Amino acid sequence: MSLYHEAAKILDDVRGERVSIKSLVYGRKDWKTDSKTLFALATEAAKWSKVLSEVLERSGVLKVEKQLKPTLAVVLVHDLFLSKRGIALPASHGLNLAVSKHKVRLSAELTKARLRRGFATLDALRASINGRTSGPSGSDSGLIPENSVLAKRPRWIRINTLKTTLAQALASTFAEYEQVSRLSDVLEAPPRDAKILHIDEHIPDLIAISVGIDLTTSKAYRAGELILQDKASCFPAYLLDPQPGDGDVIDACAAPGNKTTHLAALSTTLPGETCNRGSENRVIACEKDATRSETLRKMLLLAGADRVVSVKARQDFMKMDPTTPEFANVKALLLDPSCSGSGIVGRDGVGIPIHLPNVDAEEGDTNVGRKRSKKRKRGRDDDPKTIPSEEDTAHTVDMSEEQPNIEEGEKLKSRLANLSAFQLRLLEHAMSFPTAQRITYSTCSIHAEENEHVVIRALYSAVARKCGWRIMKRHEQVEGMQRWHLRGHQNAVGVAFTALANEPGIDAEPLRPSDVAEVAEACIRCDKNGKDGTMGFFVAGFVRDVGPHLARLDAVHETAAQSAEADVDDWSGFDGD
């Protein structure tokens, strides 16, 4: 199966199974096409699908070329007009011929579609579809109408303090921007190049600008000084609050690396300056997938976090032995496991719906191919010789988190049960690290099954009780998180406890209403499509009071460290001449 058949299959699966492009591309290892190329084409074709479906319907090509299924036609026409290299198949290939011989007609319909939307050039339409500008008043670019959810969200940018400071960024990259005190000013501003910014009041070094502005070509972005990261995605590392010198931190599910670089930035002594290794924490980043491990390494290098982060490539966190000496100084863990992704906005089939042409739609003024005289032999698109090893499709691959959309019925119920069981095992494993004192657990999910329910089960697990883990209460949280207004759902906490207490063999003391309220207040939520401009998100912190068991372990490690220092002091070095 080649690039175009595989991209078409992915788009069909996204529509039929309500899963994300990214999860389909990177969740399988048997694609013949390079993953980045496949992901780029599928993503861009999805974004252009409304326009291209209109072009195909009005041209009538699908009525003539019976071998072209609607999804396959969309990805082929995309590359015919929108890829620098055109269709990545020989000119004589059957699929290439089936589309390219109608190029004049298709081009005319694409021009009409562009003009109907009020754009003078194809580049202007492209900028609108990519979200960099808004369409003319009253127009529909095919992706982000001005009244859509995406148009009402800001572009969140975390200033990477491993390389610069907020003050330096404001004085350089954002020197021409007007600072506004309210996020709503950014949300209500016209998306078309509105140069205003809002400094976030909860997360340090985080700013919001108009979603219509593209900074990916800026010098600061390319230098790793700016990191595009949703505000909610910044909560886990900030809530964990790793202070320099506190000890090592594990990021259990690290790729693509936004939270890892945030941990690294928070763990350093002097943001923006060369760090003293003796006064900073070591961040241990685990990623079991080989491809994602390489992505993680590249991001860490670009962000300047490679000097702080130790990457455990192809390492399954669940298979790590917490008692080994390597983890003797681990004081905190960040857990952001696989989840349903139901809180993601914009890449889950809600913000970018995939449109397909109607084969039976009426054609335009000119009929297509009515005098087709004879059949021709069609080449096979699955011939490996026709598949380039690498294709420049002129797409920018977005490495931000992307997850499946909301599903329904029994399938969703089963999937959430499987996910929450895995999430609980991951959390229990984190609680088994002997010297750990803090854990953050987060998901980009709106479902209580993955959020409050997992928290309650973890609190009542054997390992939590044995090792003294409890919820991090609201008043114990870092200041910015204390002030965050959206908290966990009390009803979800109560339901989770009732279900747990009714299970055989579970010895759970009754929860008082005040306990339910306290746990719910300790949990943090973000609304999907809400006025705060974030995706749907959940995070909870766990803390471990230093009891006799932990104190003994700390004493052992302190004694070992002192012994090592003494050995160094006793050694006077080699005698010189």
Describe the protein's architecture and organization:
This protein is α/β, with parallel strands linked by helices and 577 residues long. It is 39% helix and 10% strand. It folds into three domains: 3-144, no CATH class; 154-227, 2-Layer Sandwich (Alpha-Beta Plaits), CATH 3.30.70; 237-343 and 404-553, Vaccinia Virus protein VP39 (Rossmann fold, 3-Layer(aba) Sandwich), CATH 3.40.50.150. It has helices spanning 3-17, 21-26, 35-59, 61-64, 70-82, 94-100, 103-116, 122-129, 166-171, 183-188, 219-222, 235-240, 258-267, 290-303, 409-431, 452-459, 462-467, 479-482, 490-501, 513-522, 548-570, and strands at residues 154-159, 178-179, 196-199, 206-210, 226-228, 248-251, 283-287, 309-313, 330-335, 438-443, 469-471, 524-526, 537-544. α15 links the parallel β9 (330-335) and β10. α16 crosses α19.
Beta-strand fraction estimate: 5-15%
Low-confidence stretches: 132-149, 271-278, 347-351, 365-407, 548-577
Question: What is the count of distinct domains?
Answer: 3
Helix content: 25-40%
CATH superfamily of the largest domain: Vaccinia Virus protein VP39
Rounded Rg: 27 Å
Average pLDDT confidence is: 80
Which architecture name of the largest domain does CATH use? 3-Layer(aba) Sandwich
Number of helices: 21
Shape: globular
Q: Give me the CATH fold name of the largest domain.
A: Rossmann fold
CATH class of the largest domain: Alpha Beta
Structural class: alpha/beta
Alpha-carbon distance between the two ends: 71 Å
Q: What is the β-strand count? A: 13
Main beta sheet strand tally, sense and closure: 8 strands, mixed
